[in-house]
Amino acid sequence: MDPFVPKGELRFDASQTCGYQPSKASEECGRPATWHVMWDEVLDNSLTCDEHMTLIQQRWVYVDRHPVTADCTMPGAEWVFLNDRCEFPELMASATCRAEKSVEVA
Asked: In whole angstroms, what is the distance from residue 68 CA to residue 98 CA?
């Protein structure tokens, strides 16, 4: 058995659903994703549900994984191995915080 996952088509949507799709299936799993999986050093990654994470652990190798958060599918978010999550770079986070401060109008 090949230890490397067979990769499917790239997904360009921001949905947080399981992308597992057996080769003979016409559609992806589509259940809510619970895990974000980093497959290799090229940074190929995908989202998966609990059931398919169990299958992944039994069949294939991967570099890292972490529970899905809101940042996982946001454009510009980065995988942070030390924090076990995706997050925005510090400068982006600071700009976002400043933009969210309330403004009082007299």
From this structure: 25
